[in-house]
Design goal:
Pfam families: Glyco_transf_4 (PF13439), Glycos_transf_1 (PF00534)
Strand order of the largest sheet: 3-2-1-6-7-8-9
Strand content: 15-25%
Organism: Thiorhodococcus minor
Helix content: 40-55%
Order of helices and strands: EHEEEEHEHEHEHEHEHEHEHEHEHEHHH
GO molecular function: glycosyltransferase activity
Protein name: Glycosyltransferase
Radius of gyration: 21 Å
Largest sheet: 7 strands, parallel
CATH topology of the largest domain: Rossmann fold
Number of strands: 15
CATH superfamily of the largest domain: Glycogen Phosphorylase B
Keywords: Transferase
Amino acid sequence: MRVLHIGKYFPPVAGGIEHFLADLAGAQSRAGIEVAALVHSAPGPKIDPDATSDSPIRVFRAPSFGQVLYAPVSPGFPIWLKRAIAELRPDLLHLHLPNTSALLALAIPAARRLPWVVHWHSDVVPSLIDRRLAAAYRLYRPFERMLLERSRAIIATSPTYLQASEALQPWQERCTVIPLGLDRERVTRPPANLVAEADRLWGKAELRVLTIGRLTYYKGHEYLIRAIAGLELSRLLIVGAGELRPQLEALVRSQGLNERVRLLGYQPQDRLSALLETSDVVCLPSIERTEAFGLVQLEAMHFAKPVVVSDILGSGTGWVVRLAQNGLLAEPRNVDALRACLARLRDDRELRQRLGLTGTMALDRELGLDSIVQRVSEVYQRVLR
């Protein structure tokens, strides 16, 4: 079987969907499927699209020129799609949405001749924070409907998100729920020198709180910073880059938290693993359904760390915690609720250890990558039949 994944970005670009796509494609390759991925190039150092590596996955990187409303601008994407199809000769296309460039498959005859599997990572949420998205979605939605109508199967990442997604309601009979998974071989234990370096960053805090994610409008970092302001003996490290960094730095200063909150920017996997290894709790304070699952929860499970997660209505974030029993849930945008959850974990070491252990067990039992790959392969086989 030959499969072409069409995504937004691919590692080394950081992000939950990006890492899942790489983990899934790598596991599929090991299972005997010939896999390639078509994505966009990203800002920063250029990556040779034809560079060889130890990975068995070929990655086509279509040049892009910045972003408009979080969507890559890539006029040449149709040419790269034709090239990828011609070189791989896939049996099907696996489209990871949301991704405006994936809509171009509607206009390419070679793509239309193939069956499509749509991986629905998130709705395009008409945000109450960034209201430009609501206007843009009115233009995007007709093409989204056409793509869903043309699809043979749709994969949703949680039953709660599937139930709440207005866009997916007409296509329920095509939908299968398969959660995201994590390649535990990729997230290796960090070397001792990086663990020692991470320990120095934490200092002597009694509660070490780690949050990982892009510094963008729906992640809720500002609520977590305010929660930490009223939580004694705690320290917060924020990993991620994004457009809101100046505002968050200003908030840290205004709250007098320069000694207890640090924004570390992007961190490579080995340093991120060291921070996870030495943390006490991982927090996901997101506030809108654009946060559909929260892959960082699986990384926390891998390191046996409890989580504090916003229980977003219609999202899969709370569903993961209920499935894995790996943490505490807080009302979104509620600083006091977030602080209360963190205080409970600060004061109860045994609870932290118990939640971390049950999370690790759930990762093996419910969210292992091998079972995810098998379930995705069953969808492929059904589509090809």
